[in-house]
Design goal:
This protein is an alpha+beta fold and 419 residues long. Helices cover 68% and strands 13% of the residues. It is built from nine helices and six strands; from the N terminus they run H-E-H-H-E-E-H-H-E-H-H-E-E-H-H. Strand 5 and strand 6 form a beta hairpin.
């Protein structure tokens, strides 16, 4: 009894090893976001922008330095001079024409732009996983459709064989039906290869080993879409491209204000405390000072004027880029909206075609058995049903693809941010 128990455990263990891991679309996306190397570059840009923001904050803080020096020299035959001094120096900018504040605001806007760029890269990864995932589902259904085509061809062959055996059909009909069976087997082998390649493509997109065995769960929801005007409005507030361009414009506006600050006075407070000793301890002297300095620019070679002119031209360019992005986004949302509803109509038509083709083959078999149609009519009906199956499967997943493309066009991350 104990031996039987251990054998059962061993069999169950081996069975668990051979079972393929089953995942859903959300799990596939989350795995890809963890493993995809393309996001690392975007993350690095965000980290650089965060560091630039911290660097801008440092201009509001004082600078404190410790300075020391040892000197020994002789001049024109005089006695050797030897000395040592040290000091702690403190400086703080009190006013710089608001340049520091505006440079900080620019850094914050550029950080927002970097984060928008990261979200754009994230969206691309998510969409690549969705497309690969649906590719697996589509290939799997096409494989099942190919198996159904083979069953239909074998059924037609059996009907032709029966009629041939009783002398009601010529040998040519039997050969014709047999050729359709072989053709269906050939298509089945192609579909099997396509299914395996689709799974490999999904594994690569997820950043997994291509030798891992996975199974995907079906996508179980009926896509619905709201008003086109609402979608365009949402896209303007969420699309990474728009947010990136908008942040670039805001950052450039702050840069212009920062440059204008160079026309204004600058106020600094400086102070230092230290000691000097000409002979190391016996003649020690204490030194300290405090100063408040005011610097007013009178003429700087027109450098600020030319710099301001350059930054204003850059702002004009960024504003034009923003407008172009907004126009492109609105057109993209509208096109994806039309594609979605076009595919909805195509799915309805493909479903109707599948039903009529299924009924046509059923009726055609009855007529063939009764000698009312030829084997060519029967195999032609079978071919129409095969095409109808493939068309329905293809349009169904094209509808899902169009839906996810529309969601992506509005700037929302599909799967992760709900449907």
């Amino acid at each position: 009894m104990k031996k039987l128990f251990f054998i059962s455990l061993f069999v169950m263990f081996c069975f668990s090893l051979t079972m393929a891991k089953e995942i859903d679309l959300k799990e596939a996306v989350e795995i890809a976001l963890k493993n995809n190397p393309n996001l690392e570059s975007s993350r690095a840009i965000v980290l650089q922008s965060e560091a630039s923001k911290l660097l801008a904050i440092s201009s509001f803080l004082p600078n404190i330095y410790f300075e020391t020096r040892y000197m020994k020299y002789r001049n024109n035959g005089m006695p050797v001079y030897e000395g040592f001094d040290w000091s702690i120096n403190f400086s703080l900018n009190l006013f710089s024409g608001f340049s520091s504040l505006n440079y900080y605001r620019e850094a914050v806007s550029l950080l927002d732009a970097a984060r928008a760029g990261y979200n754009a890269a994230k969206l691309d990864v998510v969409m690549s996983v969705i497309n690969a995932y649906m590719g697996v589902l589509k290939a799997k259904e096409l494989l099942e459709s190919a198996r159904a085509d083979l069953e239909d061809a074998e059924t037609n062959y059996k009907l032709a064989k029966k009629r041939y055996e009783v002398g009601l059909s010529p040998l040519a009909d039997l050969y014709n039906a047999e050729a359709k069976v072989e053709d269906a087997r050939y298509n089945l082998s192609l579909r099997e290869a396509e299914y395996e390649k689709a799974k490999i493509a999904l594994l690569v997109t997820m950043g997994l080993n291509i030798f891992e065995d996975i199974q995907v769960k079906p996508i179980a929801f009926i896509p619905e879409v709201r008003d086109i005007k609402e979608l365009v409005t949402k896209a303007f507030s969420r699309r990474p491209e728009v947010l990136y361009a908008r942040s670039e414009v805001t950052a450039q506006e702050y840069r212009i204000k920062a440059v204008k600050g160079e026309y204004l006075p600058s106020v600094d407070f400086v102070s230092s405390y230290g000691e000097s000793d000409k002979s190391f301890f016996p003649n020690r002297k204490e030194n300290w000072n405090m100063a408040l300095s005011l610097k007013i620019p009178i003429f700087t070679g027109f450098s600020t004027t030319f710099k301001l002119k350059k930054e204003r031209a850059a702002l004009l360019q960024k504003e034009s880029d923003l407008r172009n992005v907004e126009l492109s986004v609105s057109q993209d949302v509208f096109n994806k909206y039309q594609d979605f509803f076009s595919m909805k109509k195509s799915v309805v038509a493909a479903e109707a075609l599948l039903k009529s083709s299924t009924e046509d083959l059923r009726m055609m078999r009855g007529r063939y058995v009764n000698g009312l149609v030829s084997i060519v009519d029967l195999t032609t009906s079978q071919a129409r049903l095969s095409d109808a199956r493939a068309k329905y499967i293809t349009t169904k997943y094209e509808l899902l693809r169009a839906y996810y493309d529309l969601i992506r066009a509005t700037g929302r991350i599909p799967v992760l941010e709900g449907e």
